[in-house]
Structure formats: C-alpha cells, structure tokens
Design a protein that fits this description.
alpha/beta; Rossmann fold; N-(1-d-carboxylethyl)-l-norvaline Dehydrogenase, domain 2; 2 domains; six-stranded parallel β-sheet; three-stranded mixed β-sheet; 14 helices; binds nicotinamide-adenine-dinucleotide
C-alpha cells in the first residue's frame, strides 16, 4: 500500500493525520517543530518521518496543513518536497491559502508532472478530531476521486467547488462570514448587557431566533462566557482569512465595504498585539474598545 505524506502537525494537522493513521493509512509526517513529529511518532509508532531517506518517494499523496501560502509554497517548491517526490504525486493543500496563488501553484506543479487539489476545511479542532470537517475542493474530478478515501476519513461533507483555487476562495469567503458573525454577535451581546440583559439570556434569545449562528450556538457559551477562550483558532489566522477574502474582492473589482469594515475590526485586534490569542477573545477585545461603562450611559431595563 502506498503512503500519505502529511506536512504540518499543528492544531489541525495533528488530529487530521492521527485519524488517517488510525484508519490504517501509512503516514510520512513532517513539521518544522521536531517535538510535534516526536509526539506523533509516540502515538503512531508506524509513522515514518520525512527525514528518512527517500521517504517522499513512497507517498502518492502529499497533504499540506500549514499556516499560509508563503509557507506552503516555500515547503513544496524551489527544491522543496515537489522536487523530492515521484512524478504524478497528488499534492493536496488543506491549509487556508490564497486562491490566486493556489491556482498558480497548481499550474506550476502540473508543469513539473505533478497533480494538485486545494481542499481547505471548516469545523475547527473538534471537527478535525471527530472527522466532522467540511471540505471544499478545487481541482479536477479525477484527482478528487483519488482523494475521496482520505476525505471520507477527515470530513462529513466534501464539496467540489470548481477548478483549482476555488476551494481556497470559498474557504476565505466562509471565514469572512464567520468573522462578521463573531463581531456582530459580540457587539449585540455587549449592547444588550449595557441595557441590563444578561449575556447568557441574550445568547439564549439569539439561539431561539433568526440571529442564531455557529458563533451563538457553538462559541459564546462554550468559549466566551465560560472564559476558556480555547477554540484552537487564533485571531491572527482569522484575520489572514478575512484579508484573503477582501483581497480577492478587490482583485475582482467587487465593491465590498462591509467586508472591509470587518477586516478593520479584526486587523485592529491584530495591531493591538492579540494575534496569537484565540479568536473568541474578541469578546474581551471588543469590550476594551468600547468607551468605559459609565452611569450616564447605563439604561436600567
Ligand atoms: P498551527 O499554527 O497550529 O499549525 C501549523 C503547523 O505548521 C505548526 O505545527 C508549525 O510548526 C508547522 N509549520 C510551520 N512552518 C512550517 C514549515 N516551513 N515546515 C514544516 N512545518 C511548518 O495552525 P492550524 O490551526 O493547524 O492551521 C493550519 C491551517 O488550517 C491554517 O491555514 C489555518 O488557517 C487553517 N485552519 C485552521 C483551523 C483551526 O481551527 N485552527 C480551522 C480551519 C482551517
């Protein structure tokens, strides 16, 4: 049986690669953090590392789950993994990368005799652990068909979006909506609080009403009101995704003022030094950007 190469054993990649190993796939893993590779081998002793001689040549599929396009391109091209792999290897970038760069990367890999899919995911760390990710795929049907066994282990839904790059475009646009929902939900809860509505009660109202969302249902109580702020997805990565979406709008000449306002809100949190903090910390950050609570503003319900 051939093997799957997996590069990037972070918050998402580690549980995703673990599921593939647990499903019986042979894994060749790599991360610049040697501790992550060691932890993976401790849990999956059959996994090989890319440091083993000729390891990449055993993989007919190589998955990347890395922070961004710069890193994906750096790892794969210019003497990177694509040079070490066999011809016709299928590269699947499951990171949230930049769609136009992904399309170009796919063409570049094809010129080298390789194949390429972009297949970013939604569903967070929990979805990665439970195999419940949504996977949005750009590329051709034939390659998607070859990857189906892998996607079935990782996700609950696989959507073929279109040609190469469209998976990454759809992912960024999804996260733009998600980020806007976080900001709007937090602002609504803060306004309600100032009017005397308990945040938990406001969340209950949203969840029973038309304002409900993934934010209100799965983030507010769990990570914001509980004070745990531990969803596993930092402000820095969310802001990167919003900027991918707004840059795509700009490059296509689509006027998207609301999206740019959303970008500014998240960018301000990044500029204030909160990039490494969980994105659910926007609950606290947006409170600090609101003028201090004072009695004149308070309206007792
Ligand atoms: P992460 O920062 O936890 O993990 C990234 C991993 O890549 C780290 O282990 C890091 O050591 C490794 N890495 C970085 N540079 C490397 C290099 N040059 N060579 C080898 N390894 C390298 O990030 P994550 O949360 O796992 O996210 C990965 C991707 O998935 C991102 O594009 C992110 O936007 C996206 N994503 C994240 C979530 C989430 O909830 N965390 C959800 C959906 C999509």
């Amino acid at each position: 049986m051939s093997a799957i190469g997996f590069i990037g054993l972070g918050n998402m990649g580690f549980p995703m690669a673990s599921r593939l190993a647990d499903a019986g796939h042979r894994l060749i893993v790599n991360d610049r953090d040697e501790g992550a590779v060691q932890r993976f081998q401790d849990e999956h002793p059959d996994a090989r590392t890319a440091a083993d001689e000729g390891a990449w040549q055993e993989a007919d599929v190589i998955i990347t789950m890395l922070p961004n396009s710069d890193i994906v391109e750096g790892v794969l091209t210019d003497g990177g993994v694509a040079t070490a792999a066999f011809l016709n290897t299928l590269f699947i970038d499951m990171s949230s990368s930049e769609p136009i760069r992904s399309r170009n990367l796919g063409q570049r890999l094809e010129r080298q005799g390789m194949r390429y899919l972009d297949a970013p995911v939604s569903g967070g760390v929990r979805g990665a652990q439970n195999g419940q990710l949504a996977i949005m795929v750009g590329g051709n049907w034939h390659d998607l068909d070859q990857a189906k066994d892998i996607f079935d282990v990782l996700g609950k839904s696989v959507i073929h979006v279109g040609k190469a790059g469209t998976g990454h475009a759809a992912k960024a646009l999804n996260n733009l909506v998600s980020a806007a929902s976080v900001a709007a939900t937090v602002e609504a809860i803060r306004v309600g609080e100032r009017f005397g509505i308990d945040p938990a009660t406001m969340t209950e109202v949203l969840n029973a009403s038309s304002g409900r969302s993934n934010t209100s249902e799965n983030k507010v109580r769990q990570f914001m009101l509980s004070g745990t702020f531990g969803s596993g997805f930092p402000i820095g990565l969310m802001t990167k995704d919003i900027k991918i979406a707004t840059a795509l709008a700009d490059s296509l000449g689509v006027d998207a003022p609301f999206s740019h306002d959303c970008e500014n809100i998240w960018q301000s949190a990044l500029d204030a030094g909160h990039g490494a903090e969980d994105h659910t910390r926007m609950y606290e950050y947006l409170a600090t950007t609101t003028p201090a609570f004072n009695d004149e503003r308070q309206i007792h319900a």
